[in-house]
Amino acid sequence: MKIKGLWWKALTVLLMLYTLVGGLLLDVPRLVILNETIRNLYFHVPMWFGMVIMLATSAVYSIKYLKNPLTKNDDYAVEFANAGILFGILGMVSGMIWAKFTWGAYWSGDPKQNAAAVGLLIYFAYAILRGVFEDEQQRNRISAIFNIFAFAAFIPLIFILPRLTDSLHPGNGGNPGFNAYDLDSKLRLVFYPSVIAWTLLGVWVVDVKTRWRKLHAVKTEQMLATS
Amino acid sequence: MKTGLLAEVKALFIKELMLEWKQKYAFNSILVYMAATVFVCYLSFNLRLPDAITWNALFWIILLFAAINGVSKSFQQEREGRFLFYYQLASAEAIIISKILYNTFFLAIVAFTGLLVFSLVLGNPVQDQPLFLLNLFLGGLGFSSTLTMISGIAAKANNSGSLMAVMGLPVVLPLLLMLIKVSKNAMDGLARSASTDEIITITAIIAIVLAVSVMLFPYLWRS
Q1: H helices then E strands: how many in chain B?
Q2: ipTM score for this prediction
Q3: Are B153 and A149 inside 8 Å of each other by CB?
Q4: DSSP-assigned states of every residue in B92-140
Q5: Rounded CA gap, A19 and A6, in Å?
Q6: Looking at CA atoms only, how far is residue B172 from chain A in angstroms?
Q7: Which of A118, A145, A160, A163 would best serve as a mutation to test chain B binding (most B beta carbons within 10 A)?
Q8: Which of A22, A102, A195, B153 is 20 to 30 Å apart from A15, CA to CA?
Q9: CA A60/CA A48 separation, integer angstroms
């Protein structure tokens, strides 16, 4: 995946600035318990959107790798998975801090919280699996297989299961969703741009890290050639 | 050599059975493992007839670990040379399907034996037996379809023991949670309609995992 030009990086910076400034300063609905923590909508929720997008893209690159075993495809698969894990951890932390002030504890055993934790465990297993192999091609191929398999198992975990049980999350288990609070669409004005901003930032991270991987590979090759 | 997929699956399934019958190692060791774990739990918790939640959770956890142990042998047992031999004889799809079927059969027997031991030692508070048994069978099928693929991956990594658990446990967890829920419904004797949603979800998860396994295994096999 190569996005041409600088426009998307400029867009990321602009949207990110808007998310930070607008997210922290613009007017939000005043609600009991939630109070100012409602602003976490701009930081916590986009992490989950970003995570799912990153992990899905990673699975797509793993499929591409199996079809066409190029190092490039594997690089993208790994780095998108890593970005997904990063978003997952940030989403977990931002959610836990928020939960402390609204639900009363860092960990409440909420189904979505549990599902996210198990999802992270699956991707930690992916990272561990990659460390086991000595042969690079073997590593790429088998970790791609696990990545696709894990993604197929991860989907029911994160989308279906939390909906079968009551959740403390807004919009679940009788709790009103943010749409109910959001009478004048004030939240949406920042929320949608923030989702795009965080996702683009994730893509940027992946872009830099895959370029680093490519340079590293070239350097290793040169060292081997000269020695 | 072009034989039908069904014939290949059948032949490989019988081969698995005969191999096991010859060694009787995996099967007996899992049965003793089951019995020993039940006793460890029984004596550690120091209760006869624990409450329903404990009974249920213990039963499924023991079954899950027995399944991980049992299924992890399905690729380890085969020697490198033998793999090459199968490679020429059978299609990858036939191999994974036969392994999953065999493991389902294997886990179903382990599960029913486990239930017997459990009932004997800890009592059997299940009120809706047919639903519980159906759920047990679905559990066997689900564990075998998920863990067979994972064991194939772990076997390729030559590090099967801990890697199998690390990869298998989180992947199998959604299934386990659903199974425990249906199982609890069956224990409490709730109306069957209370469990339909979960049973549909379990079947859907199994279908996804089966489809993905059959699609991905050829790539694993070739490497």
Answers
A1: 9, 0
A2: 0.84
A3: yes
A4: HHHHHHHHHHHHHHHHHHHHHHHHHHHHHHH----S-HHHHHHHHHHHH
A5: 20
A6: 8
A7: A145
A8: A102
A9: 18
Q: Which of A14-23, A214-223, B72-81, B151-160 has the least mean pLDDT? A: B72-81
Chain B contact present for A63, CB below 8 A: no
Whether A184 contacts A178, CB under 8 Å: no
Residues contacting B103, CB < 8 A, separation 6+: B70, B71, B74, B143, B144, B147, B148
CB contacts of A125 in chain B (<8 Å) are: 166-167, 170-171
Percent composition of chain B: helix, strand, coil (DSSP 3-state, to 5): 85, 0, 15
- The mean per-residue pLDDT over the stretch A166-173 comes to 65
Q: Give chain B's domain count.
A: 1
- Check B174 against A146: CB less than 8 A apart: no
Q: What is the pLDDT of residue A183?
A: 46
CATH of region A7-226: 1.20.120
CB A196 within 8 A of CB A15: yes
Q: Which two tokens stand for residue A135?
A: 């042969």
Task: Provide the domain limits for residue B110.
Answer: 5-222
Q: Which residues of B163-188 are buried (b: 16+ CB within 10 A; e: fewer)?
A: bbbbbbbbbbbbbbbbbbbbbbbbbe
pLDDT at B10: 85
Q: Which residue has the tokens 């696990």?
A: A146
The rounded percent of chain B whose pLDDT value lies above 90 is: 19
C-alpha pair distances (Å), B189 with each of A165, B118, B197: 20, 19, 16
Residue with tokens 């929720």: A45
Cross-chain residue pair B166–A125, CB shorter than 8 Å: yes
Q: Where are the alpha helices (DSSP H) in chain A?
A: 7-25, 44-67, 71-102, 111-132, 136-155, 161-164, 178-181, 186-226
Nearest 10 degrees: CA dihedral of A122, A128, A129, A135?
160
Taking only the tens place, the pLDDT of each residue in B127-176 is 888 899 999 999 999 999 999 999 888 888 876 678 888 888 988 988 89
Say if CB A107 and CB A96 are below 8 A apart: yes
Query: Distance, in angstroms, between B117 CA and closest chain A CA?
Result: 31
The residues, ordered by sequence, that sit 6+ positions from A152 with a Cβ below 8 Å of its Cβ are B208, B209, B212
- Distance (Å, whole) CA A24 – CA A26: 6
A152/B212 Cβ within 8 A: yes
How many angstroms separate the CA of residue B190 from the nearest CA in chain A? Answer: 17
> What does the domain layout of chain A look like in residue ranges?
7-226
Interface test with A, best of B64, B151, B163, B219 (most A CBs within 10 A): B219
